[in-house]
Amino acid sequence: MKVGIVGGVAGLYAAVLLDSLDIDYDIHEASDRIGRRVFTYRFNQEAWDKSTPSDPAYYDYYMNDLERYNDITLLIQDPASVSARRHDADQVKTMTDALLADFDAGFNLLIEYNSMSPRQFLLKKGFTNNEIDWMETVNDAIGYYDTYSMSQAVMEEWIFYSADMNKWTLINGGMDMLTKGINLIVKNKPVLNHRGLKIVVDDTEEYDYVYVISTVPLGAQQIINMTELDLGYYQNTAFCILNYVWGQDSSRLGSYLNLHNPTTQVPYQPESIKTLVNITLRDLALEFEGYYAFNWYGLAYLNGAFAMFSPGQFSSVMPWLMRPAAEGHMHFAGEALSSGHAWIIGAVNSAWRTIYEILCTEGLEEKKK
Hints:
Blueprint: E1 2-6, H1 8-20, E2 24-28, H2 45-50, H3 56-62, E3 68-69, E4 72-73, H4 84-101, H5 103-111, H6 118-124, H7 129-139, H8 144-147, H9 150-162, H10 176-185, E5 196-197, E6 200-201, E7 205-206, E8 211-214, H11 218-221, H12 233-241, E9 243-245, H13 262-265, H14 271-287, E10 306-308, H15 313-316, H16 318-321, E11 330-332, H17 344-362, H18 365-368
Helix pairs in contact: 1-10, 1-17, 4-5, 4-7, 4-9
Protein backbone atom coordinates (compact mmCIF):
# COMPACT_ATOMS: atom_id res chain seq x y z
CA MET A 1 0.00 0.00 0.00
CA LYS A 2 1.29 3.44 -0.94
CA VAL A 3 -0.17 6.82 -0.02
CA GLY A 4 0.12 10.01 -2.06
CA ILE A 5 0.31 13.26 -0.08
CA VAL A 6 -0.25 16.67 -1.64
CA GLY A 7 1.83 19.29 0.22
CA GLY A 8 1.42 21.45 3.32
CA VAL A 9 2.38 21.13 6.98
CA ALA A 10 -0.49 18.67 7.48
CA GLY A 11 1.05 16.55 4.75
CA LEU A 12 4.43 16.61 6.48
CA TYR A 13 2.88 15.46 9.75
CA ALA A 14 0.92 12.77 7.90
CA ALA A 15 4.29 11.53 6.62
CA VAL A 16 5.61 11.33 10.20
CA LEU A 17 2.60 9.21 11.17
CA LEU A 18 2.98 6.97 8.12
CA ASP A 19 6.67 6.46 8.94
CA SER A 20 5.67 5.29 12.42
CA LEU A 21 3.22 2.83 10.83
CA ASP A 22 5.74 1.60 8.23
CA ILE A 23 3.49 2.67 5.34
CA ASP A 24 5.09 3.97 2.15
CA TYR A 25 4.18 7.37 0.67
CA ASP A 26 5.20 10.21 -1.64
CA ILE A 27 4.84 13.94 -0.88
CA HIS A 28 4.12 16.29 -3.78
CA GLU A 29 4.62 20.03 -3.20
CA ALA A 30 3.56 22.45 -5.94
CA SER A 31 5.72 25.36 -4.77
CA ASP A 32 9.48 25.64 -4.43
CA ARG A 33 9.53 25.38 -0.62
CA ILE A 34 8.05 23.14 2.05
CA GLY A 35 5.38 24.13 4.53
CA ARG A 36 3.11 26.14 2.23
CA ARG A 37 1.40 28.68 4.56
CA VAL A 38 4.04 28.20 7.27
CA PHE A 39 6.29 31.06 6.26
CA THR A 40 8.81 33.16 8.18
CA TYR A 41 10.34 36.29 6.68
CA ARG A 42 13.60 37.48 8.23
CA PHE A 43 14.53 41.13 7.83
CA ASN A 44 18.07 40.59 9.01
CA GLN A 45 18.96 37.01 9.80
CA GLU A 46 22.55 37.93 10.71
CA ALA A 47 21.41 40.52 13.28
CA TRP A 48 18.96 38.02 14.74
CA ASP A 49 21.65 35.37 15.11
CA LYS A 50 23.95 37.82 16.94
CA SER A 51 21.31 39.38 19.22
CA THR A 52 21.08 38.67 22.94
CA PRO A 53 18.44 39.46 25.59
CA SER A 54 20.74 42.20 26.94
CA ASP A 55 20.56 44.01 23.61
CA PRO A 56 17.76 46.65 23.72
CA ALA A 57 17.19 46.38 19.97
CA TYR A 58 16.48 42.69 20.45
CA TYR A 59 13.57 43.44 22.74
CA ASP A 60 12.31 46.46 20.79
CA TYR A 61 12.23 44.51 17.57
CA TYR A 62 11.46 40.93 18.55
CA MET A 63 9.97 41.07 22.03
CA ASN A 64 7.42 43.85 21.72
CA ASP A 65 4.41 41.94 23.03
CA LEU A 66 4.12 44.29 26.01
CA GLU A 67 4.67 47.84 24.80
CA ARG A 68 4.66 50.83 27.11
CA TYR A 69 4.85 54.61 26.87
CA ASN A 70 5.84 56.73 29.88
CA ASP A 71 5.52 53.57 31.99
CA ILE A 72 1.89 53.15 30.95
CA THR A 73 1.40 49.70 29.44
CA LEU A 74 -1.16 48.73 26.85
CA LEU A 75 -2.71 46.30 29.32
CA ILE A 76 -5.42 47.43 31.70
CA GLN A 77 -3.89 47.91 35.14
CA ASP A 78 -7.09 48.46 37.13
CA PRO A 79 -9.14 45.25 37.44
CA ALA A 80 -12.25 47.37 37.93
CA SER A 81 -11.78 49.17 34.58
CA VAL A 82 -14.30 48.50 31.83
CA SER A 83 -12.88 45.78 29.61
CA ALA A 84 -14.25 44.81 26.19
CA ARG A 85 -12.33 41.55 26.43
CA ARG A 86 -13.95 40.68 29.78
CA HIS A 87 -17.46 41.57 28.57
CA ASP A 88 -17.01 39.35 25.53
CA ALA A 89 -15.61 36.43 27.51
CA ASP A 90 -18.38 36.57 30.10
CA GLN A 91 -21.05 36.04 27.43
CA VAL A 92 -19.57 32.77 26.16
CA LYS A 93 -18.22 31.42 29.45
CA THR A 94 -20.90 28.73 29.63
CA MET A 95 -19.76 27.31 26.30
CA THR A 96 -16.01 27.59 26.90
CA ASP A 97 -16.43 25.94 30.31
CA ALA A 98 -18.38 23.13 28.64
CA LEU A 99 -15.57 22.61 26.11
CA LEU A 100 -13.04 22.33 28.92
CA ALA A 101 -15.16 19.86 30.86
CA ASP A 102 -16.11 17.59 27.93
CA PHE A 103 -15.14 18.61 24.41
CA ASP A 104 -17.79 16.53 22.63
CA ALA A 105 -20.62 17.76 24.85
CA GLY A 106 -19.28 21.32 24.71
CA PHE A 107 -19.04 21.23 20.93
CA ASN A 108 -22.65 20.03 20.68
CA LEU A 109 -23.68 22.96 22.90
CA LEU A 110 -21.98 25.59 20.78
CA ILE A 111 -23.41 24.06 17.59
CA GLU A 112 -26.83 25.06 18.96
CA TYR A 113 -25.71 28.67 18.39
CA ASN A 114 -23.99 27.92 15.09
CA SER A 115 -26.56 29.71 12.93
CA MET A 116 -25.97 32.99 14.74
CA SER A 117 -23.26 35.58 14.24
CA PRO A 118 -21.58 37.09 17.33
CA ARG A 119 -23.56 40.29 16.77
CA GLN A 120 -26.87 38.42 16.73
CA PHE A 121 -25.88 36.53 19.86
CA LEU A 122 -24.86 39.68 21.75
CA LEU A 123 -27.99 41.55 20.67
CA LYS A 124 -30.08 38.77 22.21
CA LYS A 125 -28.02 39.20 25.37
CA GLY A 126 -29.16 42.84 25.58
CA PHE A 127 -26.12 44.67 24.20
CA THR A 128 -26.61 47.62 21.85
CA ASN A 129 -25.02 47.83 18.42
CA ASN A 130 -22.67 50.56 19.64
CA GLU A 131 -21.51 48.37 22.52
CA ILE A 132 -21.00 45.44 20.16
CA ASP A 133 -18.99 47.64 17.78
CA TRP A 134 -16.77 48.63 20.70
CA MET A 135 -16.17 45.02 21.70
CA GLU A 136 -15.44 44.01 18.11
CA THR A 137 -12.97 46.89 17.66
CA VAL A 138 -11.03 45.96 20.79
CA ASN A 139 -11.26 42.17 20.56
CA ASP A 140 -11.23 41.23 16.89
CA ALA A 141 -11.00 42.37 13.27
CA ILE A 142 -13.43 44.78 11.67
CA GLY A 143 -16.51 43.01 10.33
CA TYR A 144 -15.88 39.68 12.05
CA TYR A 145 -18.84 39.97 14.42
CA ASP A 146 -21.13 40.07 11.38
CA THR A 147 -19.44 37.60 9.05
CA TYR A 148 -18.32 34.64 11.12
CA SER A 149 -20.30 32.17 13.15
CA MET A 150 -20.83 32.15 16.88
CA SER A 151 -19.23 28.71 16.91
CA GLN A 152 -16.02 30.18 15.53
CA ALA A 153 -16.09 33.01 18.07
CA VAL A 154 -16.40 30.53 20.93
CA MET A 155 -13.63 28.32 19.57
CA GLU A 156 -11.28 31.31 19.34
CA GLU A 157 -12.15 32.40 22.87
CA TRP A 158 -11.53 28.88 24.11
CA ILE A 159 -8.18 28.49 22.31
CA PHE A 160 -6.83 31.94 23.15
CA TYR A 161 -7.88 32.40 26.74
CA SER A 162 -9.30 29.24 28.31
CA ALA A 163 -6.35 26.94 27.65
CA ASP A 164 -3.49 26.75 30.14
CA MET A 165 -1.04 29.49 29.12
CA ASN A 166 1.80 27.43 30.58
CA LYS A 167 1.28 24.88 27.80
CA TRP A 168 1.97 27.33 24.97
CA THR A 169 5.22 26.69 23.12
CA LEU A 170 7.57 29.22 21.56
CA ILE A 171 9.49 28.12 18.48
CA ASN A 172 12.71 30.08 18.55
CA GLY A 173 13.79 31.35 15.16
CA GLY A 174 10.40 31.40 13.43
CA MET A 175 7.52 29.07 12.67
CA ASP A 176 9.24 27.61 9.62
CA MET A 177 11.72 25.96 11.97
CA LEU A 178 8.91 23.47 12.63
CA THR A 179 8.52 22.43 9.00
CA LYS A 180 12.28 22.36 8.52
CA GLY A 181 12.56 20.07 11.54
CA ILE A 182 9.84 17.72 10.29
CA ASN A 183 11.51 17.60 6.89
CA LEU A 184 14.70 16.38 8.56
CA ILE A 185 13.03 13.36 10.14
CA VAL A 186 10.63 12.09 7.45
CA LYS A 187 11.99 9.21 5.40
CA ASN A 188 10.62 10.35 2.04
CA LYS A 189 11.33 14.02 1.41
CA PRO A 190 8.80 16.24 -0.38
CA VAL A 191 9.31 16.60 -4.12
CA LEU A 192 9.13 20.34 -4.84
CA ASN A 193 7.64 22.08 -7.88
CA HIS A 194 5.23 19.19 -8.46
CA ARG A 195 1.97 20.84 -9.43
CA GLY A 196 -0.71 18.18 -9.03
CA LEU A 197 -3.80 18.12 -11.21
CA LYS A 198 -5.74 14.88 -10.98
CA ILE A 199 -2.53 13.48 -9.46
CA VAL A 200 -0.76 14.06 -12.78
CA VAL A 201 2.46 16.00 -12.30
CA ASP A 202 3.52 18.48 -14.99
CA ASP A 203 1.58 16.39 -17.55
CA THR A 204 4.54 14.02 -17.80
CA GLU A 205 4.41 11.67 -14.84
CA GLU A 206 1.43 9.81 -13.47
CA TYR A 207 1.35 8.20 -10.03
CA ASP A 208 -0.83 5.40 -8.71
CA TYR A 209 -1.79 5.34 -5.03
CA VAL A 210 -4.20 3.32 -2.97
CA TYR A 211 -4.98 6.47 -0.97
CA VAL A 212 -4.43 10.18 -1.52
CA ILE A 213 -4.33 12.83 1.22
CA SER A 214 -4.84 16.38 -0.02
CA THR A 215 -3.73 19.10 2.39
CA VAL A 216 -4.14 21.82 -0.24
CA PRO A 217 -5.71 24.99 1.26
CA LEU A 218 -9.39 25.03 0.42
CA GLY A 219 -9.00 28.33 -1.40
CA ALA A 220 -6.58 26.66 -3.82
CA GLN A 221 -8.55 23.39 -3.80
CA GLN A 222 -11.34 25.22 -5.60
CA ILE A 223 -9.28 25.45 -8.81
CA ILE A 224 -8.27 21.77 -8.87
CA ASN A 225 -10.15 19.46 -11.21
CA MET A 226 -11.90 16.92 -8.97
CA THR A 227 -14.61 15.81 -11.39
CA GLU A 228 -13.41 12.20 -11.44
CA LEU A 229 -13.77 11.93 -7.65
CA ASP A 230 -17.54 11.83 -8.10
CA LEU A 231 -18.13 14.24 -5.22
CA GLY A 232 -21.73 14.56 -4.09
CA TYR A 233 -23.69 17.79 -4.47
CA TYR A 234 -23.21 18.94 -0.87
CA GLN A 235 -19.52 18.05 -0.83
CA ASN A 236 -18.90 19.86 -4.11
CA THR A 237 -20.79 22.91 -2.88
CA ALA A 238 -18.83 22.97 0.38
CA PHE A 239 -15.54 23.34 -1.47
CA CYS A 240 -16.93 26.28 -3.43
CA ILE A 241 -18.55 28.46 -0.78
CA LEU A 242 -16.17 28.52 2.18
CA ASN A 243 -14.61 31.95 2.61
CA TYR A 244 -10.89 32.53 3.00
CA VAL A 245 -10.12 35.68 4.94
CA TRP A 246 -7.71 38.17 3.43
CA GLY A 247 -8.49 36.56 0.09
CA GLN A 248 -11.45 38.78 -0.63
CA ASP A 249 -11.54 42.56 -0.47
CA SER A 250 -11.28 43.69 3.12
CA SER A 251 -13.43 46.31 4.77
CA ARG A 252 -11.96 49.76 4.34
CA LEU A 253 -9.90 50.52 7.42
CA GLY A 254 -9.11 54.17 6.72
CA SER A 255 -10.13 57.13 4.59
CA TYR A 256 -9.99 56.97 0.85
CA LEU A 257 -8.02 59.90 -0.58
CA ASN A 258 -8.09 60.50 -4.31
CA LEU A 259 -5.05 62.63 -5.07
CA HIS A 260 -6.33 63.24 -8.61
CA ASN A 261 -9.27 65.20 -7.21
CA PRO A 262 -7.82 67.02 -4.18
CA THR A 263 -10.52 69.66 -3.89
CA THR A 264 -13.21 67.16 -2.97
CA GLN A 265 -11.27 64.22 -1.55
CA VAL A 266 -8.58 65.86 0.57
CA PRO A 267 -10.18 68.40 2.92
CA TYR A 268 -8.28 71.52 3.91
CA GLN A 269 -6.49 71.29 7.24
CA PRO A 270 -5.24 74.26 9.26
CA GLU A 271 -1.50 74.91 9.31
CA SER A 272 -1.12 73.64 12.88
CA ILE A 273 -2.50 70.25 11.87
CA LYS A 274 -0.09 70.06 8.94
CA THR A 275 2.80 70.82 11.26
CA LEU A 276 1.70 68.11 13.66
CA VAL A 277 1.40 65.61 10.81
CA ASN A 278 4.89 66.47 9.57
CA ILE A 279 6.36 66.00 13.04
CA THR A 280 4.57 62.68 13.41
CA LEU A 281 5.78 61.46 10.02
CA ARG A 282 9.32 62.55 10.86
CA ASP A 283 9.26 60.62 14.13
CA LEU A 284 7.85 57.55 12.41
CA ALA A 285 10.55 57.74 9.75
CA LEU A 286 13.22 57.70 12.46
CA GLU A 287 11.67 54.59 14.01
CA PHE A 288 10.94 52.79 10.75
CA GLU A 289 13.24 49.85 10.01
CA GLY A 290 11.54 48.27 7.03
CA TYR A 291 8.53 46.22 6.07
CA TYR A 292 7.55 43.11 4.22
CA ALA A 293 4.14 42.75 2.59
CA PHE A 294 2.77 39.32 1.78
CA ASN A 295 -0.20 38.88 -0.53
CA TRP A 296 -2.04 35.74 0.58
CA TYR A 297 -4.38 35.97 -2.38
CA GLY A 298 -1.61 36.52 -4.91
CA LEU A 299 -0.28 32.96 -4.79
CA ALA A 300 -2.28 30.30 -6.62
CA TYR A 301 -1.19 27.64 -4.14
CA LEU A 302 -2.67 29.60 -1.21
CA ASN A 303 -5.55 31.72 -2.54
CA GLY A 304 -6.22 33.17 0.91
CA ALA A 305 -4.88 33.02 4.45
CA PHE A 306 -7.17 30.78 6.51
CA ALA A 307 -10.74 29.59 6.40
CA MET A 308 -13.52 31.47 8.12
CA PHE A 309 -16.83 29.76 8.85
CA SER A 310 -19.91 31.94 8.46
CA PRO A 311 -23.10 31.34 10.48
CA GLY A 312 -24.38 27.81 9.94
CA GLN A 313 -21.32 26.49 8.13
CA PHE A 314 -19.85 24.49 11.01
CA SER A 315 -22.81 22.12 10.77
CA SER A 316 -23.80 22.47 7.10
CA VAL A 317 -20.40 22.71 5.35
CA MET A 318 -17.64 21.30 7.54
CA PRO A 319 -18.94 17.68 7.73
CA TRP A 320 -18.98 17.49 3.93
CA LEU A 321 -15.45 18.89 3.67
CA MET A 322 -14.16 16.21 6.03
CA ARG A 323 -15.91 13.37 4.22
CA PRO A 324 -13.59 11.03 2.22
CA ALA A 325 -14.23 10.75 -1.51
CA ALA A 326 -13.67 8.10 -4.19
CA GLU A 327 -15.08 5.32 -2.02
CA GLY A 328 -12.79 6.15 0.88
CA HIS A 329 -9.57 6.54 -1.10
CA MET A 330 -9.38 10.35 -1.25
CA HIS A 331 -8.97 12.23 2.03
CA PHE A 332 -8.88 15.95 2.75
CA ALA A 333 -6.86 17.62 5.50
CA GLY A 334 -5.64 21.07 6.52
CA GLU A 335 -6.30 23.66 9.20
CA ALA A 336 -9.84 24.35 7.97
CA LEU A 337 -10.88 20.73 8.47
CA SER A 338 -10.48 20.61 12.24
CA SER A 339 -11.99 22.12 15.36
CA GLY A 340 -8.88 24.31 15.72
CA HIS A 341 -8.84 25.74 12.22
CA ALA A 342 -6.70 28.77 11.39
CA TRP A 343 -4.12 27.29 13.77
CA ILE A 344 -1.21 25.04 12.88
CA ILE A 345 -2.40 22.54 15.50
CA GLY A 346 -5.60 22.26 13.45
CA ALA A 347 -3.57 21.18 10.43
CA VAL A 348 -1.70 18.62 12.54
CA ASN A 349 -4.90 17.21 14.03
CA SER A 350 -6.50 16.92 10.59
CA ALA A 351 -3.52 14.87 9.38
CA TRP A 352 -4.02 12.44 12.27
CA ARG A 353 -7.69 12.09 11.26
CA THR A 354 -6.90 11.21 7.65
CA ILE A 355 -4.41 8.53 8.68
CA TYR A 356 -6.98 7.10 11.09
CA GLU A 357 -9.55 7.03 8.27
CA ILE A 358 -7.14 5.09 6.05
CA LEU A 359 -6.45 2.56 8.79
CA CYS A 360 -10.18 2.10 9.33
CA THR A 361 -10.79 1.57 5.61
CA GLU A 362 -7.99 -0.98 5.43
CA GLY A 363 -9.11 -2.71 8.62
CA LEU A 364 -5.66 -2.31 10.19
CA GLU A 365 -6.84 -2.53 13.78
CA GLU A 366 -3.39 -3.21 15.24
CA LYS A 367 -1.88 -0.12 13.66
CA LYS A 368 -4.74 2.02 15.00
CA LYS A 369 -3.47 1.35 18.51
